[in-house]
Design goal:
The complex is a heterodimer of chains A (757) and B (153). Chain A has 757 residues and is an alpha+beta fold. The model of chain A is unreliable at 1-18 (pLDDT under 50). With 153 residues, chain B is α/β, with parallel strands linked by helices. In chain B, helix 1 (14-26) packs across helix 5 and helix 2 packs parallel to helix 3 (74-83). Classes of the chains: A alpha+beta (757), B alpha/beta (153).
Chain lengths: 757, 153
């Protein structure tokens, strides 16, 4: 911007103007230099002068004769001798100091630094006038710099480093005010350290809008770490001809020490009340982190070697800042990881991993330095600390699911700006950090932070970054740098990158656990299926293969008895009968075992059951067993039930047949079937006055093949009650027995009432 | 009795063959009993193929088919019989040790005419065979002579 910024279409309607036009100003090709020296654009190989700017002292001969001349013909022999090797010296990237040279001037001598660098295809040779009494070399300054380096070791924080650097730069430059200026993520800058005398006001802690240092200026600062404007009132010296005769392009002065700056910037300086300014870039990993910004009320030339020392200080500071930053982040990260590891331990210890989070709310909050948290999983939430109400959390979850479905981690320190109707939640949830923990359900862990009202001090009202002149065409930077305070509301303390990271790591851990659990479940059910299949195959083979030999034994024994009976002795006949009987009973055992296993696998077909009718039917069937005995039946009112007809019939068959069997010795057998009905469940019981059982063995009563009597006393395989229990339990009920020896037994079972299943 | 159709017994266990034949004899059924030992042979017999190429034509009165058989199992044999239009009319009685209901369900699904779980007790077996034999081998056919007279002894 060699001319004042022109607004081609001033937006008068809104009245808003800013300096964004500065973003477009090509400041690396200003076409002119500051006046305290001379600049030559040389053609490599021939060292012929293509363009030139002859400073105020006009140390070089008249311009007209300069252009096209050979360097050797233009410079005094002693000067040429010093710069003769310029081509070789500029092969390496960067700027080379060729030495100090002297030009005759006004009957005396003037000293200049000869400095050269490459700019595209061209060699740029600059002569910068020395300052009276300036140090002869960088070595002269080295003791200062060394002391600074030593003291840096002791600095414990970024703040201490910045303070020291400001102090040191001011000490070696003697400028009125030195600021360390740090950019935020939006390129606004805050003054974090300052060293000054009383000539210029303090800017400490002030914030400056990003437009104060536009993008292309920041890029230039990245390339050329040091920039000096010795006099904000200087008159620039043009480069002639304006364009390179061969390429027709203006010369790129990005690395030039004499480069002229934008008039808008000079105006900005004058508005700030500064006559000279210098800035040193602070880079972190190649990116602009901040600036050491120096100002002087009066115009002031900072000597070349002093600037070099300042650049050195800036570089050392940059490295230290990066190291301290890294260390700080590493420390925070470590602290977070410790908490994270503890949470993982809690999760592993709980049946359901989320219990590990909710039962250790302190750690969950500590993980991200939050004031509140919510664990939302499968439609339920657990709230910890200061959180919005449940319905607001539901709203947040719905909003996250709708607008941030693909974000694993979402963080904002200004929820009111992101989510509609979130302003009312500001006291607990101005800050939201959320992790999605399930792909399927809308499940999240949410952390909340309350609003923190902050005051930001701006170096001048950032909303008035620019003003228009009355003609509406010229734009000026703001005139006032008075502290302008802005109140920032609806924002929480920002989430630090290590906190967001910790949340992300927790998410990964949770997702891993969920996935692992799911895989374990799948593996387990697979195993179950295969075990079931095996069991079925086993039963099947038992049913076929084990029964056959018993059948054969019985069959052949029977044939023997039938066909050869007449030749068998009485004793042999008895033997054969015993063989038949034993094989039959073994066969019965196999059959019972199978029926028991089938009872466990068969599908229940629940139907409404008339329990009285069922009992009557079973009693009729058992008449055979009763024979001529007198049994006194007491059948009560039995509440209807719902269950599998076959299975419940088997229950009554087993219970009543047992009752008949165990009352066999009684003169008057009494068998009672009754029911205690309630809303929740119906208890049915079968009571007899038979031989009863020893309470000590009650636990064995319902076991498979468990018998409490000798076979000679009471026949049976001991499968009956085992089947009863299996059937009742499969119906969701339970079964128990009461009794004592010689005083009868009561077997009770419960079936859920109503129409379940 | 020569014109009585034979009974085809498909059974791999020689003991079961012997016991079944004994039971049939005790029932005094006059039908000849043809024994084959696996499912493949049963199919060959029914189609008059392979080593049964020269057998007298005609279908058996009834097939007593064991469920578990080598090569081609009973259910497969049953399926082939019931899917073949020339064989479909032959009554098939499944004889088996199985108490597994899925066998039963499948057998009925395939169109079995009766399904008998071989009881362990020989007496019951005898009764089952007798009933089956009477029904399928004799009663189900136009009786050449009164079965009651056969049973007089």
């Amino acid at each position: 911007m060699t001319q004042p910024a022109l607004l081609t279409e001033p937006d008068k309607a809104s009245g808003s103007f800013d300096l964004s036009t500065c973003d477009r100003e090509p400041i690396h090709i200003p076409g002119s230099i500051q006046p305290y020296g001379a600049l030559l654009v040389l053609e490599p190989g021939t060292l012929r002068i293509l363009q030139a700017a002859n400073g105020t002292d006009a140390i070089l001969r008249a311009d007209a004769k300069l252009i096209g001349a050979a360097l050797a013909d233009v410079l005094p022999a002693s000067v040429f001798a010093a710069v003769e090797q310029v081509e070789a010296a500029t092969l390496a990237p960067g700027v080379s100091h060729l030495g100090t040279v002297r030009f005759a001037h006004d009957g005396g001598w003037r000293s200049y630094h000869a400095i050269a660098h490459r700019s595209g295809e061209r060699i740029i040779l600059e002569f910068e006038e020395t300052v009276a009494d300036e140090p002869g070399s960088f070595e002269d300054l080295y003791p200062h710099v060394r002391d600074f380096l030593d003291s840096l070791q002791a600095a414990s924080s970024v703040q201490a480093l910045a303070d020291m650097a400001a102090r040191e730069v001011r000490r070696i430059t003697g400028l009125d005010r030195v600021l360390v200026y740090r950019f935020d993520e939006n390129w606004n800058g805050t003054v974090v350290a300052e060293d000054r005398n009383d000539t210029l006001p303090s800017y400490l802690d002030l914030r400056f809008p990003a437009s104060d240092i536009p993008a292309q200026a920041r890029e230039l600062y990245r390339l050329n770490r040091l920039r000096l404007i010795a006099d904000s009132d200087y008159s620039s010296v043009p480069i002639t001809p304006t364009l390179d005769p061969a390429t027709n392009a203006p010369v790129d002065l990005s690395l030039s020490v004499l480069r002229s700056v934008s008039p808008v910037h000079l105006e900005y300086m004058r508005n700030m009340g500064t006559g000279a300014s210098m800035s040193i870039s602070l880079l972190r990993e190649g990116q602009l982190w901040g600036l050491i910004s120096c100002h002087n009320a009066a115009p002031r030339r900072v000597p070349y070697h002093v600037r070099t020392a300042c650049d050195f200080i800036g570089q050392i500071l940059s490295l230290q800042l990066a190291a301290k930053d890294h260390a700080g982040i590493a420390e925070r990260r470590h602290a977070r990881r410790t908490v994270g590891a503890r949470l993982l331990g809690h999760m592993a210890a709980e049946d359901h991993f989320l219990g590990g989070l909710t039962r250790h709310g302190d750690d969950l909050l500590a993980l991200t330095n939050a004031a509140g948290a919510a664990v939302v999983f499968g439609g339920t939430s657990a709230l910890i600390g200061e959180t919005p109400a449940q319905e607001d959390i539901d709203r947040i979850v719905a909003w996250l699911a709708a607008h941030h479905r693909d974000d694993d981690v979402f963080a904002t320190d200004n929820l009111a700006a992101a989510m509609p109707d979130a302003e009312q939640l500001k006291d607990v949830a101005s800050g939201l950090l959320a992790i999605a923990i399930s792909q399927v359900h809308d499940s999240y862990v949410l952390w909340f932070r309350p609003e923190v009202i902050r005051t930001v001090s701006w170096g001048g009202d950032p909303r008035k970054r620019a003003e228009l002149e009355p003609d509406g065409l010229r734009l000026h930077p703001r005139k006032s740098f008075e502290v302008w305070k802005e109140t920032v509301s609806l924002r929480s303390a920002p989430w630090h990158e290590t906190e967001v990271e910790a949340a992300g790591e927790l998410r990964t851990a949770i997702v891993d656990i969920v996935l692992r659990r799911a895989e374990e479940m799948a593996a387990m059910s697979e195993q179950l299926v295969s075990i079931n299949k095996e069991l079925e195959a086993f039963s099947y083979s038992v049913s076929h293969d084990l029964r056959a030999p018993f059948r054969h034994i019985v069959g052949y024994s029977q044939l023997l008895k039938n066909n050869e009976g007449q030749v068998l002795t009485e004793r042999a006949t008895r033997y054969v009968d015993t063989i038949i009987e034993s094989a039959l009973s073994a066969g019965t055992l196999v059959d019972n075992l199978l029926s028991y296993s089938q009872m466990g696998r068969a599908t229940i077909l629940p139907v409404p059951l008339d329990m009285n009718a069922l009992t009557a039917e079973v009693i009729r069937k058992l008449e055979m067993e009763v024979g001529s005995r007198a049994i006194h039946w007491r059948i009560g009112e039995l509440a209807p039930a719902r269950g599998d007809l076959m299975m419940i019939r088997l229950v009554f068959q087993n219970l009543l047949s047992n009752a008949i069997k165990f009352t066999r010795d009684r003169e008057e057998a009494v068998i009672e079937v009754g029911c205690h009905a309630s809303e929740a469940e119906n208890v049915y019981f079968v009571r007899d006055n038979g031989v009863g059982f020893d309470k000590a063995y009650v636990a064995k009563l319902f076991g498979v093949f468990q018998r409490l009597h000798r076979v000679e006393e009471f026949e049976g395989t001991g499968i009956g009650l085992a089947n009863v229990r299996r059937i009742v339990e499969r119906h969701g009920g339970r079964v128990w027995a009461e009794g004592q020896v010689d005083a009868g037994a009561t077997i009770s079972f419960v079936l859920p009432s109503g129409t379940e299943f | 009795m020569a014109d009585l159709k034979p009974i085809l017994l498909v059974e791999d266990s020689p003991k079961d063959v012997e016991l079944t034949i004994a039971a049939l004899e005790q029932c005094q059924l006059a039908n000849a009993v043809v024994v084959v030992r696996d499912g493949a042979e049963a199919i060959e017999y029914l189609h008059g193929r392979g080593k049964f190429m020269d057998r007298a034509p005609g279908h058996p009165a009834v097939v007593l088919l064991d469920l578990k058989l080598p090569k081609v199992d009973g259910l497969e044999v049953l399926e082939q019989i019931k899917q073949d239009s020339t064989l479909r009319q032959i009554p098939v009685v499944m004889l088996t040790s199985s108490r597994e209901e899925r066998d039963l369900v499948r057998s009925y699904h395939l169109g079995v005419n009766a399904f008998v779980v071989k009881p362990v007790g020989f007496q019951q077996f005898f009764e089952a065979i007798r009933d089956l034999g009477m029904f399928w081998a004799v009663l189900n056919e136009p009786p050449p002579c009164a079965p009651s007279s056969e049973q007089a002894a």
